[in-house]
Amino acid sequence: MNRWPIVAATLCILCIPAASHGSDTFNSLPEARRQVIEQWISESFQASTLSPEEQAEELASFASAAASLEGLEISVLSEDLATHRYESDVLARAFSEITGITVNHDLKPEGEVIRQVNLQRIMAAKGRYDAFVNDSDLIGTHSRTGWALALSDYMEGEGRNFTLPTLDLDDFIGLSFVTGPDGKIYQLPDQQFANLYWFRYDWFQRPELRAAFEERYGYELGVPLNWSAYEDIAEFFSVHVKEIDGERVYGHMDYGKRDPSLGWRFTDAWLSMAGAGDSGLPNGLPVDEWGIRMEGCHPVGSSVSRGGATNGPAAVYALQKYIDWLRSYAPPEAPDMNFSEAGPIPAQGQIAQQIFWYTAFTSDMTKPGLPVVNEDGTPKWRMAPSPHGAYWSEGMKLGYQDVGAWTIPRVMSDRRQKAAWLYAQFTVSKSVSLQKTLVGLTPVRESDLNSEEMQAMSPELGGLVEFYRSPAREAWTPTGVNIADYPKLAKLWWPNIADAMSGERTAQQAMDKLAESQDRAMAVMERNFSVNSCAPRIASDSEAEGREYWLAQPGAPKPRLEDEKPPGRTIRYEDLLTRWEEAR
Question: Which residues of 115-144 are buried (b: 16+ CB within 10 A; e: fewer)?
Answer without folding.
Answer: ebbbebbeeeeebebbbbbbbbbbbbbbbb
